Fold this sequence. Notes:
Elements: H1 11-24, H2 37-49, E1 56-59, H3 66-75, H4 78-81, E2 86-90, H5 97-105, H6 122-125, E3 130-134, H7 141-153, E4 155-156, E5 165-166, E6 170-175, H8 179-184, H9 190-196, E7 199-202, H10 212-228, E8 233-234, H11 236-243, H12 250-264, E9 269-270, H13 289-297, H14 303-312, H15 318-331, H16 336-342, H17 350-359
Parallel strand pairs: 1-6, 1-7, 2-3, 3-6, 8-9
Antiparallel strand pairs: 4-5
Helix pairs in contact: 5-7, 7-9, 10-12, 13-15
Amino acid sequence: MRIDVAGLLAPVAERLHDLSIARWGDQRAVHLVGHSAPMLALQAKLEKFARYQEPVLVVGESGAGKEHMAQAIYLLSRAAAAGAPYVSVNCPQFQDGTVTVSELFGHTRGSFTGAVGDRRGAFEEADGGVIFLDEIGDLPPPAQAMLLRTLATGEFKALGSDRPRVANVRVVSATNRPLNQLMLEEKFRADLFFRLRYFQIDVPPLRERGDDWRLLVEYCLRRLATRYGERKTCSKAAWRLLEGYDWPGNVRQLVGVVNTAYAMADGDVIEPQDFEGRLAVPADEGPSVDELYDRLVAGQAGFWADVHHPFLDRDLNRTQVRALVRRAFEAAHWNYRRLLEVLRLPPDDYQRVMDFLRHHRLKPGPDERPE
């Protein structure tokens, strides 16, 4: 049964969702959920890059959905329309350089201990289509050298073979590691880096995607309802708990948290306790909100130096800053102009403060205000 994605996906994302289910089934649906500016810009870039054959480097934090970018490029390409293959390789799973080379380019019988027969590699399997190399920064040096040759010439040699082979494969690679730093440490080839980064896609972390997290929660709940036949929703308290979280594990973490809460909820309403403490903030994490607030109103601390910058550096989390801002709003009797007086900020900072609170979802919601 098709999940109802009305209102959750932009047109490109809805097309990708349907294409992925038609090709791979519901378990591998590509869900680029959201209408935030970063996600719409990302989808426009995916459509453009899908037309070409040059390599793409996908950069982003763990859990942000980098493989979905590779799948999207494939699904929107002529290769997918022609039924060409999509092959995914997780580079860190092969610690031995020989095994990695064999996995990518194949081997001949007797080429190393345990090679009891000839084997086709991932490049040969992906001929005519797309190969996704996940966590490319962990690729061992021998495999880096062979990959560079393949990108430059289209040719490769199976391990133990002198006969060159040719594969027409588009390479999409991904990393959450700083390849520039790895190059300085001589752990990653600079010439390979520039070959891989013909196009680059930067996947925004969930915390920079505005209210997309709300749509992702709704998408997860609809998907679970379609699969298990039981519709569940979040209570206001559960929504507040989710809103106050930074999602350091990005989309992958959110999906896991919602799935757990769906399973734990006894009725059709998910409450904060159903998250099993997965979103709880440790009591000793960072400075005390009350202490920081008292220092601010006493003029012993500054909002930009002691709240804004630590929040951007992730030394303060969203739950803490929201609690602090809520206290300031209460003291200002929910007047935005007086809020600046409470925080000892000049009137000229009004727009900067409002932009900061709005962009990072730090303003208290209407249901948090007294009647």
